[in-house]
Design goal:
With 332 residues, this protein is an alpha/beta fold. It is built from 11 helices and 10 strands. It has a 6-stranded parallel β-sheet, sandwiched between helices. Strands 8-7-9-10 form a 4-stranded antiparallel β-sheet, with helices on one face. The radius of gyration is 23 Å and the shape is globular.
């Protein structure tokens, strides 16, 4: 299908709506990851609904020395990809359309959660992001808005804003799309030279190493819960050759492990990448509670996010994966 290009909110509001409107917000330079978001939006909106893709490079969320002028702008290709992925319209407003009086004097504050991780690395970034998301939600008037989980902290803050400020819109997170080598899809990947791309693979490899360590810990803890500490039980296990497995399980359950071991497994990969040519320069590696992006403790249970940000050459990249603590804890 062909997407209609709209430049003003008035043109968008003039469209006849007969079903749910699903909005996918982007800064353009669309890729396969965006296409996945748009296809998901199409399924949610249904045949009677409408999918709108916004393309707007928001100056408020670029700090001093960041790549606002360098950020790729490929509107013609974006409109084509949006249409073939299922969008009905592309809303690509000018800066004057979004900020008619210049930079807004009243802005959304991300609060303490917006000062951690990405917020600490990019002061003011999340205030600018939330301000434009709020404006675009008002301008597009959707029933549902979709965002990628690759920007996990952004997604968490948008959900918090919508809940705290009573926006009447459903927020849907869509899993990260990766290339065949594991690199998370990003518009900034095009900046990487072949050698830089090889180094950049350490981000996803570190996350996978942490994920594998987490899975092993969870499995061994589940095994430990199945093995009572009684001597009779230990003797019975020994008779069938399971004593070593039981001992290993108890060791993992009662000694150092948990979040620290997961971070250590991921950090090992990143430390090795720091010695490559070109090297990876780490901004942060964190294992956090997605409700507030504070570090998880040793006794944490529930959903968590293992997140990383680093620079390779002049390009800054982020990535994350979700982890669940206590996966096996309620089974016994």
């Amino acid at each position: 299908m062909t997407a209609t290009l709209l430049r003003t909110a008035a043109d968008l509001h003039a469209r006849v709506r007969t079903g749910r409107r699903a909005v996918v917000m982007t800064m353009g330079a669309l890729h396969v990851g965006h296409a996945t978001l748009i296809r998901t939006a199409r399924k949610i909106a249904g045949p009677e609904g409408e999918v709108v893709v916004t393309v707007f490079v928001n100056p408020l969320q670029f700090g001093a020395g960041e790549d606002l002028d360098r950020y790729p702008r490929t509107l013609d290709a974006d409109v084509e990809l949006a249409g073939t992925s299922g969008a009905d319209a592309v809303f690509a407003p000018s800066v004057d359309e979004v900020y008619p009086g210049g930079e807004p004097r009243v802005r959304i504050s991300a609060g303490p959660m917006g000062e951690r991780l990405e917020g600490a690395a990019r002061p003011g970034h999340f205030d600018g992001m939330l301000t434009v998301v709020a404006k675009l939600l008002h301008l597009t008037r959707p029933n549902v808005a979709l965002y990628g989980q690759k920007d996990a902290q952004q997604l968490a803050l948008i959900r918090r804003m919508v809940r705290d400020l009573n926006f009447g819109v459903e927020i849907v997170g869509v899993p990260t799309v990766r290339e065949e080598d594991g690199l998370a899809l990003s518009s900034r990947n095009r900046y990487l030279s072949p050698a830089e791309r090889r180094t950049a693979l350490a981000l996803s490899q570190a996350l996978f190493a942490g994920r594998d360590r987490h899975a092993a810990q969870e499995a061994l803890r589940a095994r430990a819960r199945e093995v009572p500490a009684s001597r009779a039980r230990a003797e019975a296990l020994s008779a069938i050759g399971e004593s070593r497995a039981a001992a290993d399980a108890h060791a993992v359950a009662t000694t150092a492990g948990g979040p620290a071991a997961i971070r250590a497994a991921a950090r090992l990969v990143l430390d090795e990448a720091a010695r490559l040519d070109p090297p990876l320069t780490l901004d942060y590696l964190a294992l956090v509670d997605p409700s507030d992006f504070t570090d998880v403790g040793d006794d944490f249970t529930g959903e968590a996010v293992l997140a990383v940000a680093a620079r390779v050459g002049a390009t800054r990249l982020i990535d994350n994966i979700p982890l669940t603590f206590g996966t096996f804890g309620d089974a016994s």
